[in-house]
Design goal:
The chain contains 15 helices and 28 strands. It is an alpha+beta fold and about 650 residues long.
């Protein structure tokens, strides 16, 4: 309320009477399984098949995870979470290379981003950087197309990632560990923390200086970052020997006085300038007097009477600076194999990546469910290909035991189950009989997405069914059973078992949802029952509608927490939830001809007593009349004879 201090009009915004509730998403799935690559410490969100391939790789022989995700997107899925499971003996591919010191030690370890055989196919190229080749380096990442054949040249393969102008200095914004770790999807880099390999900072000139020099020429020099000072070479003006010029430079630098108190005076007193021969030509080598990571020599042209062009020093004249830390850079190498590399210089160590060979059990996959505990925007769960009664029990138990009970599990019978007896036996082995899951039979036949087989291959149906759920939800709503002639399975060309009406009639009462083929329609989902024996929650759309309502209302009334617990709050809750339920009623989500027949929302003194108020509790009672599918359509035909014509 504004302070009323003067006559006039006061304008104030107030909240509207209805706080809208958003309908919770019901079609985002989560898939758990083995993958070629990808992180194995959390759940990753992918929005299309290409995204999955980029992070988790492609199809592998001992897992149906990629097939399930591929079918999910092919049948209408929009986004899903992926939880990668790895065997306990899986290993990360890595290779360690020496640095560039005169006595080299381990300079850096390059490792695949995550566990698996795939890391052995990574190839690295380490070169001098583009901008500062004396101190920085360039890293290019490639990948073999054939894991058994190394290319003759790195240029034979496309560069997947390129990182230029990387530093080995932890204080640099271009520090290789940080840059590659954050930007690369393929590799990580580790640098030894205790690496004392340093040198005296130096600046090498280009070969072939021009002598003699003109009188009073010079240049500017900075040692160890002390700042540029002018060096005048008055005594070297007539010198014809490069060694005499080097001596004059050394004497002139010794006479300079440091500008910063933090600069070690030895940088100047110990400064040397020598010559070295490159082929048939000589060049100058200027070195700081200190030997440390921060030791450096920088040269730039003088403002007037500049000698850098004649002496071939300075970056513009062909010179090249190397700081004391520069020798810690990993050695230059044209083709470095990660993981499966031989221990030949500059390689000092290598660990081969591996998918592992340990046997995984249903518990191995169920343990990975915990990575989904803190994710609340998915509502379907599947473990494609892990088709056992124990896996189905664990999956449905996880969904039922989540705090909000907001997930539905899609189970499937075994790969070899191809008869009614097999499916019945599978169903009878289930020990969990709740309404948070459905069981589908049989497996489906589809063209091999991996391209390994010319004939259709047998695949688990959970990926197709999850995509079908998403497609029906988007087109008709979660209250529509994901079954019927419109519930076609895209990409499916056959079934592991063809069922008759009698077969179907034997399985349906047991809560086994069958996939069938009909002429002119193709392969469709033709069952929509959960595995529970409770008739209230017999149907998939009823349970999933209840999940949608629960999550939507839970998220939509968070604003009520800590509000005064009295009639005004109760009225707002009735209004907000009632408006939400009315909207769903108009969309056809409930039974009944009127809203009062379809649902009710009660929040008043009857639901919330004084004792509840004293305990800080407000109770809201919401009821709805669910739509149940017309599972059996009965048509009665009778004869009518003796009708008069006319």
């Amino acid at each position: 309320m504004p302070t009323l201090s003067y006559p006039g009009v006061y304008v104030q915004e107030t909240a509207g009477g209805v706080r809208p509730l958003d309908t919770a998403s019901t079609s985002t799935a989560a898939f758990v399984g083995l993958s070629e690559t990808g992180p194995d410490t959390g759940a990753g969100l992918v929005t299309n098949w290409t995204d999955f391939q980029r992070v988790y790789g492609s199809f592998i022989a001992d897992s149906y995870l990629a097939h399930g995700v591929f079918q999910y997107f092919g049948n209408g899925g929009r986004q899903c979470y992926v939880v990668r499971v790895t065997r306990p003996d899986a290993a990360v591919a890595s290779v360690t290379v020496s640095n560039r010191a005169s006595v080299p030690v381990a300079g850096a370890t390059f490792s695949a981003k995550n566990k698996g055989d795939w890391g052995n196919t990574l190839l690295l190229q380490i070169e001098d950087a583009t901008l500062d080749p004396g101190n920085l380096f360039k890293l290019t990442v490639r990948r073999q197309t054939d894991a058994a054949v190394l290319p003759d040249s790195p240029q034979d393969l496309p560069a997947l990632e390129v990182f230029d102008n990387l530093s080995i200095d932890p204080a640099s914004s271009a520090y290789v560990v940080d840059v590659v770790g954050q930007a690369s999807g393929l590799i990580d880099v580790a640098v030894p923390s205790a690496n004392d390999a340093t040198q005296r900072g130096l600046h090498r000139g280009g070969p072939g200086p021009t002598l003699p020099l003109d009188t009073d020429l010079g240049f500017q020099i900075s040692l160890d970052g002390d700042g540029f000072q002018t060096v005048t070479l008055a005594t070297a003006g007539t010198a014809t020997a490069l060694a005499d010029v080097a001596s004059a430079i050394e004497t002139a630098v010794h006479a300079l006085v440091r500008r910063k108190a933090s600069t070690d005076p030895v940088a100047f007193s110990g400064f040397t300038c020598t010559t070295e021969t490159v082929g048939t030509q000589s060049r100058l080598v200027l070195q700081s007097g200190t030997k440390s990571a921060t030791s450096s020599v920088r040269v730039q042209p003088a403002a007037t009477h500049d000698a850098t062009a004649l002496l071939r020093i300075g970056e513009a004249a062909g010179g090249r600076s190397e700081d004391g830390i520069a020798v810690r850079r990993p050695a230059a190498v044209q083709l470095l194999q990660v993981g499966d590399s031989g221990i030949v210089a500059p390689v000092t160590a290598a660990t081969r990546g591996s998918d592992g060979v340990a046997v995984l059990t249903e518990t191995s996959f169920a343990d990975a469910f915990s990575r989904l505990d803190h994710i609340t925007d998915f509502s379907l769960l599947a473990v494609p290909g892990e088709s056992s009664p124990a896996m189905a029990d664990l999956g449905m138990a996880y969904c039922a035991n989540r705090p909000l009970q907001d997930v539905f599990y899609i189970a499937e019978t075994g790969r070899g189950d191809d008869s009614v007896a097999d499916a019945t036996a599978f169903r009878n082995k289930l020990t969990t009989s709740n309404s948070y899951g459905a069981l589908y039979f049989p497996w489906v036949r589809a063209l091999d997405p991996a391209g390994r087989s010319a004939d259709p291959v047998l695949l688990p149906p959970s990926g197709c069914v999850a995509g079908l759920y998403a497609r029906i939800d988007a087109a008709r709503g979660v209250w529509k059973a994901p079954a019927g002639t419109e519930a076609g399975l895209n990409g499916v060309v056959g079934l592991g078992a063809e069922l008759s009406d009698v077969d179907h009639g034997n399985l349906n009462p047991r809560g086994v949802d069958v996939l069938r083929r009909f002429p002119g329609v193709g392969v469709v989902a033709f069952g929509a029952r959960t595995v529970t024996a409770d008739p209230q929650w017999r149907y998939v759309p009823v349970r999933r509608t209840a999940i949608m309502l629960r999550v939507s209302i839970y998220n939509g009334i968070q604003w009520a927490v800590f509000e005064p617990n009295d009639e005004p709050l109760w009225a707002q809750l009735r209004l907000s939830i009632g408006s939400f339920m009315t909207t769903l009623f108009r969309q056809g989500a409930f039974q009944g001809a009127t809203p009062s027949q379809a649902f009710f929302v009660k929040c008043d003194a009857e639901t919330t007593t004084q004792a509840d108020i004293d305990a800080g509790v407000v109770n809201v009672l919401v009821g709805f009349a669910p739509l149940k599918p017309a599972e059996f359509v009965v048509v009665k035909i009778s004869q009518q004879a003796g009708l008069a014509s006319g």
